[in-house]
């Protein structure tokens, strides 16, 4: 059956994860090793900005592909505004997969270390969190981490590092929000402003490109511009999270639902008792309308109907590019085109979209503004020999506690606001219509909970961080603090850090 194809999608996502993960662990460490320490946040920011712009551009291009029917050359009666429309979702995977293969070959040619990178390594000053028992000094052994037997000790050192632990947890909460909003952000816009899926995805792409990409780059730029140490970097993350926490209250803003006969109101305009649905009434009782066929139409009275059949329509006009149904017995009013309905949803008259988009821009901007500083703090709060391993552990924590359950958590919250479910042979399918006010409230609750948790975790990481004492640093601490010092001037103070 068609349901077995889901295993093919699961396998594809599994392979995608295997291929992408090293870029965000080994790739980031490779960048950090081969550039000056003070410039590292900027290079990593450029790397992650590209990783943000890619999915954002995917929303824009994907929105265009969704306007193309999934089977080329096949003529269908449905339009992109119809929920039964299936766009050409697979084109993006095909193009991106081919591009990835082409890029992989140059990457294979890179050396272990770029020429001239050794001088940046010897200039590096450790900012690793200092453990009370002094066990952090174990990682400074040149032979540490080269054998599998060092794995338990390496894990133990990271578990004893509270700054690293809370940075991982903060990253997980932020990843939950990013994953949840990436999945359901377009759905939120689609429901609130009565947009088609392709238009909502395009608008969301326009929002994420400057906010997500700009915030990611600016985060790395600020760390470099103000020459922030690990403690200052964590404080910057805390300020960004607090700012986005205040802006998250934008989800109080919502638009009223478009009136829909039998769903949000009765066919005669009266209020439906409770949350019950009543799609059958005297005007369509003889039509034998099927619940399985959901094809919304907008009546000339600005009321939506489940389908032309549920609106009591008897004729279809094909004189124009837009489908117009006529002689609709359920559509009442005093207009000249009484009894008519057009295919698709009614246009929303809600005027809050500019305000909502501006405030969503602020939330996304400050959320991504803390991403590169948090990553830089992770690299600096652990010893140099544990950076790749620490990023790997953090990646697992962020994905396991954030990226994977994020869409599930947001989806379960948003589904609580569903008014009309798809009926698939007696089984509940996807949601057709949401209660906009409840959708905003549940999104606000989910966002508020995770933003508060993120703020608490960054605060604990800042309070528990213990930087190296001046006595523990090699040579003069004043010279070591200056990341732009000339190599010859610092030669005597950093010689002991060289890995010969």
Reported for the largest beta sheet, the result is:
5 strands, antiparallel
| Proportion of strand residues | 5-15%
Helix vs. strand class = mainly alpha
Radius of gyration: 28 Å
Low-confidence residue ranges = 475-500
Largest sheet, spatial ordering of strands:
2-1-5-4-3
**N-end to C-end Cα span:** 61 Å
The residue-averaged pLDDT reads 84
- State the CATH architecture of the largest domain: Up-down Bundle
How many strand segments? 7
Task: Describe the protein's architecture and organization.
It is a single chain. With 500 residues, this protein is mostly helical. The protein folds into 3 domains: 18-255 and 354-467, Growth Hormone, Chain: A; 259-347, no CATH class; 469-500, no CATH class. 52% of the residues lie in helices and 6% in strands. The protein is built from 15 helices and 7 strands. It has a 5-stranded antiparallel β-sheet with strand order 2-1-5-4-3, with no helix packed on it. The longest helix has 31 residues, at 162-192. The radius of gyration is 28 Å and the shape is elongated. The protein starts with 5 loop residues before the first helix and ends in a 6-residue tail after the last helix. The model is unreliable at 475-500 (pLDDT under 50).
Summarize the structure.
The chain is mainly alpha-helical and 500 residues long. It is built from 15 helices and seven strands.
Strand and helix map with partners:
Layout: H1 6-33, H2 40-65, H3 90-108, H4 118-123, H5 151-159, H6 162-192, H7 197-225, H8 230-247, E1 297-299, E2 304-305, E3 315-317, E4 324-326, E5 341-343, H9 353-369, H10 371-380, H11 387-403, H12 405-415, E6 418-424, E7 427-434, H13 436-464, H14 477-481, H15 491-494
Antiparallel strand pairs: 1-2, 1-5, 3-4, 4-5, 6-7
Helix pairs in contact: 1-2, 1-11, 2-7, 6-7, 6-10, 6-11, 6-12, 6-13, 7-9, 7-10, 8-9, 8-10, 8-13, 12-13
């Amino acid at each position: 059956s068609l349901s077995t194809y889901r295993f093919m999608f699961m396998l594809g996502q599994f392979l995608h994860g295997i291929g992408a993960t090293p870029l965000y662990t080994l790739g980031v460490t490779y960048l950090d090793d081969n550039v000056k320490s003070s410039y590292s946040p900027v290079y990593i920011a450029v790397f992650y900005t590209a990783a943000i712009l890619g999915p954002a551009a995917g929303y824009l291009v994907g929105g265009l592909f969704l306007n193309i029917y999934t089977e080329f050359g096949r003529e269908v009666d449905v339009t992109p505004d119809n929920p039964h429309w299936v766009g050409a979702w697979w084109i993006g995977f095909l193009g991106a997969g081919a591009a990835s293969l082409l890029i992989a070959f140059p990457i294979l040619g890179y050396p272990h270390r770029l020429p001239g990178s050794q001088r940046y390594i010897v200039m590096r000053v450790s900012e690793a969190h200092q453990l009370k028992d002094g066990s952090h000094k174990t990682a400074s052994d040149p032979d540490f981490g080269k054998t599998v037997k060092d794995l338990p000790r390496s894990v133990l050192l990271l578990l004893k590092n509270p700054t690293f632990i809370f940075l991982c947890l903060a990253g997980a909460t932020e990843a939950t929000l990013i994953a949840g909003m990436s999945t359901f952000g377009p759905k939120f816009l689609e429901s609130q402003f009565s947009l088609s899926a392709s238009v909502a995805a395009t608008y969301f792409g326009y929002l994420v490109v400057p906010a997500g990409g700009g915030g990611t780059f600016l985060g790395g730029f600020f760390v470099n511009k103000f020459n922030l140490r690990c403690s200052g970097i964590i404080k910057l993350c805390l300020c960004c999270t607090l700012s986005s926490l205040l802006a998250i209250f934008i989800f109080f803003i919502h638009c009223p639902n478009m009136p829909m006969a039998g769903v949000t109101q009765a066919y005669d305009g009266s209020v439906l008792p409770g949350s019950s649905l009543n799609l059958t009434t005297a005007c369509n009782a003889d039509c034998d309308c099927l619940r399985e066929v959901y094809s919304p139409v907008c009546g000339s009275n600005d009321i939506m109907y489940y389908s032309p059949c549920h609106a009591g329509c008897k004729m279809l006009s094909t004189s124009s590019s837009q489908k117009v149904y006529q002689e609709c017995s359920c559509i009442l009013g005093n207009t000249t085109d009484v009894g008519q309905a057009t295919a698709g949803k009614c246009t929303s008259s809600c005027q809050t979209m500019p305000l909502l988009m501006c405030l969503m821009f602020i939330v996304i901007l400050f959320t991504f503004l803390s991403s590169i500083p948090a990553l830089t703090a992770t690299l600096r709060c652990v010893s140099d020999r544990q950076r790749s391993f620490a990023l790997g552990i953090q990646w697992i924590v962020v994905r396991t506690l954030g990226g994977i359950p994020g869409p599930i958590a947001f989806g379960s919250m948003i589904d609580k606001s569903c008014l009309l479910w798809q009926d698939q042979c007696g089984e509940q399918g996807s949601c057709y219509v949401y209660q906009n006010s409840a959708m905003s409230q549940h999104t606000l609750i989910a966002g508020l909970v995770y933003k508060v948790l993120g703020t608490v975790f960054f605060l604990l990481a800042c309070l528990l961080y213990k930087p190296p004492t001046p006595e523990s640093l090699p040579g003069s601490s004043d010279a070591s603090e200056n990341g732009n010092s000339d190599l010859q001037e610092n030669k005597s103070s950093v010689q002991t850090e060289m890995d010969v």
